Amino acid sequence: MLKREINSMLIEQIKLFNQLEESLCEQKRCVKENKLFELDRIGIEIDNICKNIAEIELKLRKSLGKDKIKDFVMKNKDDNELYESYIFLVSQAEKLSLMKNDNQFLIKKSLSFINKLLSSINNTTNNKPNVYTRNITY
After folding, report:
1. N or C: lower Cβ tally within 10 Å for the chain?
2. Tell me, what's the pLDDT at 99?
3. What is the pLDDT of residue 124?
4. How far apart are CA 48 and CA 36, in angstroms?
5. How many CB atoms lie within 10 A of CB 130?
6. Angle between the 2-32 and 80-125 helix axes, to the nearest 10 degrees?
7. What residues does each domain of the chain span?
């Protein structure tokens, strides 16, 4: 009975991880295309999915008590469905971590470019010479 319950929670998490993967792909597309308003919407969507994943994780920990999920799965390794669900979930988590890091890098790179551009504009308005203006002397 507990094995089925744990497996169903793992399957729920896998479904949420798939939604999260779609949202991270959409986030990457929006960053590349500079769609800021869509990016904000996707950020909220990602946050909601993560909250749902955390709720399931809490239920999972409550069901297992002091046992860790990995230990529970290894004790019940004879249940192929449970074992395969766990292995797939772990691989999905690694994949999502890489996607998240990639998106963070792209966002930071984009923000760095925007900051340099704004700095350049601010220097121009203050009549300070920069790369795009000349210091005129007569």
Report:
1. C
2. 95
3. 59
4. 19
5. 14
6. 20
7. 2-125
